[in-house]
Write a structure and sequence with these properties.
With 251 residues, the chain is of the alpha/beta class. It has one domain: Rossmann fold (3-Layer(aba) Sandwich), CATH 3.40.50. 36% of the residues lie in helices and 25% in strands. It is built from ten helices and nine strands. Strands 5-4-3-6-7-9-8 form a seven-stranded mixed β-sheet, sandwiched between helices. Strand 1 and strand 2 form a beta hairpin. The chain is globular, with a radius of gyration of 20 Å. 36% of the residues are buried.
């Protein structure tokens, strides 16, 4: 288990390993957790977990620790890194993940991750602007595989992928209280993301290129409902006007 501290003159973390937790010397990757109350995920996080397979996975903003615990108990990852920037959720994750092969770190975003340390990364439950800030702050530390779940401004996250060389390889909607979009990216060598081929790019950034290509009945109903709602107003703000114009082009 480790906690990270930082000197102001450097962005590299200084790790101080604590010895308060004696981890067994056996293969901890083989741990299976039978406590369903602690490992059962909601629909949103289950959709995220279904898209993660890695040797070392980092989860930024893991205030509960349940995602990493679930991934380890199901053998979808071998090692986890939980990064929190606030003391209380940091301590919560430490408690939930005690006994697992996880480093729980107190740090701001990717400042808690070494270059090349993780194969994949998840950031869930934040606004799109916050997610983009974290990814853009230290781009050399962003792993090759990403699963991102922004609560709003999803188009900003897709735009980041386009300009940063990360292709969108899958996306879905998980309905839980409200609709959550889960985006899966992978670092690519080509600059053109095939997910957007043949689509209205502005509309695809807002509503999702792969979702539009599948165009399932539920998506059509969502768009129709949103159009009906927006059409009630005599005047719309710039963002709503842009969404309505995109919906009209799609439908």
């Amino acid at each position: 288990m480790c906690q990270l501290y930082f000197r102001t003159e450097t962005s590299r973390p200084i790790l101080h390993y604590q010895t308060d937790l004696a981890l067994p010397q056996t293969d901890r990757f083989a741990i299976i957790d039978d406590d369903d109350t602690l490992t059962k995920l909601d629909k949103r996080l289950q959709a995220v977990a279904n898209r993660i397979r890695a040797s070392t996975h980092a989860d930024v903003g893991s205030d509960h620790g349940y995602l990493l615990r679930w991934l380890l108990s199901r053998r979808q990852i071998r090692r986890g890194i939980a990064i929190e920037n606030k003391q209380q959720p940091f301590q919560h994750s430490q408690s939930v993940l005690a006994g697992y092969d996880v480093d729980v770190r107190l740090a701001d975003g990717l400042h808690g991750l070494f270059d090349g340390e993780a194969d994949s990364l998840s950031i869930c439950g934040m606004g799109g602007r916050s997610i983009v800030r974290i990814l853009s702050d230290l781009p050399d530390r962003v792993p090759q595989a990403l699963v991102l779940q922004p609560n709003r401004d999803v188009d900003l996250v897709r735009s980041w992928g386009l300009r940063s060389g990360y292709h969108l390889i899958d996306e879905c909607i998980a309905d839980q209280n409200w609709s959550h979009q889960i985006l899966q990216f992978r670092r690519a060598t080509s600059t053109t993301d095939p997910a957007y081929k043949g689509l209205d790019q502005e509309a695809a950034l807002i509503f999702g290129p792969l979702l539009l290509k599948r165009f399932e009945p539920t998506l059509a109903l969502r768009l129709q409902d949103e159009r009906a709602y927006l059409n009630q107003f005599d005047k719309l703000g710039p963002k709503s006007s842009k969404r309505l114009a995109a919906i009209n082009r799609i439908l």
